[in-house]
Design goal:
9-stranded mixed β-sheet; about 30% helix; about 525 residues
Length: about 525
């Protein structure tokens, strides 16, 4: 459906307007004759209908649940596509279906789905309204009929859409997919968007033409033309991808990358669990993960960083003792840090007069920030202006051992690495950093874990499977915990030898950053990944 969300109004039917330039592009993707039977299952204001009529297509059927929309078109039936009994078949089904998570559905829509045979056969309350529109549309296509939709990308690799993906694999193939990462196609919608052309057929084409566009800018006719015709330009990527298979996540990457990720996940499988299908069983953790072997914590929150930085003040002995070493995200590089900042940290519980007397220079320093400090979020308690607002995970950070830091968010549009860095004990992360510690019983070394997290294959895995919004990968506790982890079989001499080699090579790299060592580290991992499990 196509309608912009009005300010402060709940978008009851999951409606977003499709820009005319995009609708025109989608119609041009269709390979049909003038007398083809065409359906639009959620026509919104009718931008597709208007363009189809202009292009001479007259055998049109459309559904729209909102009776205030598309009133100028005779072909529109004001009924729910979900419940409508439709006897005819179509050569083309095109449009922008609604997308609403079950938990956000109005009660009337939930009731409608609960009584729908397609929904009950294929889906459940963890699924999206969108899924039914895709599957029912395929059912309504003629053999070799085409489905061209624009929608969010998330259903292509989430657990709960596996039944939809399997149905699509069994009933046809994809011809083209266009992936828009940060492109603002719809107002107030920040998820990655895809446009796909799917053909219902007993035959299958071997490859899918995939075009990707990464730029945060509005789509133009020229951009879409270049994507369609695979004309190279900035922020665009063109791939030929093998058709998707049953029981797999659909990853819009080259076959080489998809193979590489399969090798990684196979290496990380827990023993006696080697079926891909289990990846989609929420009650089973298919592979070993970083969360099994590491404790993870998001950094401390000051509420106003510049107020807590020491910045070269002359300090008393008390004040020197009331500082901590902090690393911020900007100071992280792969494997290593390049700067430590002194921050003021005063234990809670002081009265202001005592604070002034004990830390006179800090007292003067804080006065110029006091107004802003008092405006900080108080977390339902009284926080003095010289105190941090949220000392989350402080006990974890106090552990007397080395830790790995990574930025909480990392833009990957212009790089092919993440910044997991080893940090000495006694150094703390602020809120833009997440810290990783070995669990007490983890035998793998911290250097091995560090090298593993910086491995190119882990970068590719996170790029495809991590929490990615636009071109930003998020590294809070949960997404880091879910990274597959290659554990060492300590009864296997070859694996132990490779673990020790990786650890030693990493220690050397931490000392001198000699790039040739990174090649040796990655070669050792390749050998480790090639050992049959």
């Amino acid at each position: 459906m196509e309608i912009t969300v009005k300010q402060n109004t709940k978008n009851k039917f999951g409606q977003y307007f499709t820009p005319k330039v995009v609708a025109d592009f989608m119609i041009e993707m269709a390979n049909i004759s003038q007398n083809s039977q065409i359906l639009e299952p959620s026509c919104g204001e009718g931008v597709f209908l208007e363009l189809l009529l202009q292009k001479g297509y007259n055998n049109l059927t459309a559904f729209e649940i909102d009776q205030e929309l598309a009133q100028e078109f005779d072909c529109v039936k004001y009924d729910s596509f979900v419940s409508a009994k439709i006897d005819e078949k179509f050569d083309l089904i095109i449009g922008n279906p609604p997308y609403i998570r079950w938990k956000n559905l109005e009660d009337e829509l939930k009731q409608e789905l609960s009584g729908n045979p397609i929904w009950n056969k294929h889906f459940n309350s963890l699924c999206d309204y969108l899924y039914l529109f895709i599957l029912k549309s395929i059912e309504l296509l003629n053999e070799n009929g085409q489905l061209i939709f624009i929608c969010p990308e998330y259903w292509m690799n989430t657990t709960h859409s596996i039944s939809l993906r399997n149905y699509m694999v069994q009933n046809g193939y994809f011809e083209e997919i266009y992936h828009f990462n940060e492109t603002p196609i719809f107002e107030k919608v920040t998820v990655s968007i895809v446009i796909f052309k799917y053909v219902k057929s007993k035959d299958r084409k071997e490859k899918i033409k995939v075009s990707k566009f990464y730029a945060n800018q509005k789509l133009t006719t020229e951009t879409l033309y270049n994507l369609k015709n695979k004309i190279p330009f900035k922020d665009a990527e063109f791939l030929s991808v093998s058709q998707f298979k049953l029981n797999e996540r659909w990853i819009l990457q080259s076959d080489e990358v998809r193979e590489e990720l399969q090798v990684l996940e196979t290496n990380c499988l827990k023993k006696n669990q080697n079926t891909l299908l289990n990846l989609f069983d929420d009650n089973k953790q298919e592979f070993h993960t970083i969360g099994d072997f590491c404790d993870i914590g998001n950094g401390l929150v000051s509420g106003l960083d510049k107020a807590f930085q020491v910045n070269g003040h002359i300090l008393t002995e008390n004040e020197i003792n009331a500082t901590i070493d902090v690393v911020k995200a900007k100071d992280l590089k792969p494997f290593v840090i390049h700067n430590i900042t002194k921050y003021i940290y005063i234990n809670e519980g002081l009265e202001e007069e005592c604070f002034k007397k004990t830390y006179p220079n800090f007292y003067i320093h804080f006065q110029k920030y006091k107004t802003d400090l008092d405006k900080r979020y108080q977390y339902n308690r009284k926080i003095n202006y010289w105190e941090w607002v949220f000392l989350r995970n402080f006990n974890l950070f106090k552990k007397e051992e080395k830790r790995i830091f990574v930025p909480c968010k990392e833009r990957i549009s212009n790089k092919n690495y993440f910044r997991f860095a080893l940090v000495d004990e006694g150094v703390f992360p602020t809120q833009d950093v997440t810290a990783i510690f070995k669990k007490f019983n983890t035998k793998e070394s911290i250097e091995y874990i560090l090298a593993y997290l910086n491995n190119p294959v882990v970068f590719d895995w996170l790029k495809c499977n991590g929490i990615v919004k636009g071109n930003i990968v998020e590294f809070s506790e949960k997404p880091i915990a879910s990274i597959p982890f290659r554990v060492i079989d300590w009864s296997n001499e070859k694996e132990v030898e490779l673990h020790n080699s990786i650890s030693e090579q990493t220690k050397k790299y931490l000392k001198n950053q000699e790039k040739s060592l990174l090649d040796l580290i990655n070669q050792s991992f390749n050998k480790l990944f090639s050992i049959k499990q």
